[in-house]
Design brief:
135 residues, alpha+beta, 4-stranded antiparallel β-sheet, globular
Length: 135
C-alpha cells in the first residue's frame, strides 16, 4: 500500500498528508489526529485516500478534511469509487456512503478516538485521540 513499507504507524505518517481532500492544511493537532485515524483504518484493512493516486483515477479510500468551524477536529470521509458511482443509482450510492460512514464511526470508536455525536449515516468528526473520562 505504501512505497515506503513499514508498519501501520509508518504508513499512517506517510498517508497523513496524502489523505487530505481539497489541498487543505491541518493544524498541528489535526495532523496528530490524522495519524491516529489512519492508524485505526489501516489496522482494519481500509485503504487511505491518496491524492496522488486520485490524479490517476484511483479515488477510493478514507479521506480527511478539517471539520467546519473547529480547527482542532477532523471530518473522516469515505471516497467511493468514481467509476462505480457513475453506474449506480443515486439511492444506492447514498446508502453505501451512509453505511461506510457508520462503519468508520464504529471503527474509530472501537479504537477509542473521541467522536462527535451525530447522525449515524453522516461522516464522523474526530475531536481527539482519546475520549475524555466521564466522572
Amino acid at each position: 500500500m505504501n512505497p515506503l513499507g513499514g508498519d501501520y504507524r509508518v504508513q499512517a505518517r506517510y498517508f497523513a498528508d496524502l489523505a487530505v481532500l481539497g489541498g487543505e492544511t491541518f493544524t498541528e493537532h489535526q495532523e496528530e489526529l490524522a495519524r491516529a485515524v489512519l492508524e485505526a483504518v489501516l489496522l482494519v484493512g481500509l485503504p487511505p485516500y491518496n491524492i496522488e493516486a486520485a490524479a490517476d483515477g484511483e479515488e477510493t479510500g478514507v479521506a480527511l478534511a478539517p471539520a467546519p468551524g473547529n480547527n482542532r477536529a477532523l471530518r473522516v470521509l469515505w471516497q467511493q469509487d468514481a467509476a462505480a458511482v457513475l453506474h449506480l443509482r443515486a439511492d444506492v450510492c447514498d446508502a453505501q456512503q451512509a453505511a461506510m460512514n457508520q462503519t468508520l464511526r464504529t471503527i474509530l470508536a472501537a479504537h477509542r478516538l473521541w467522536i462527535e455525536d451525530g447522525p449515524l449515516g453522516e461522516a464522523p468528526v474526530v475531536l481527539g485521540s482519546h475520549r475524555p473520562s466521564v466522572k
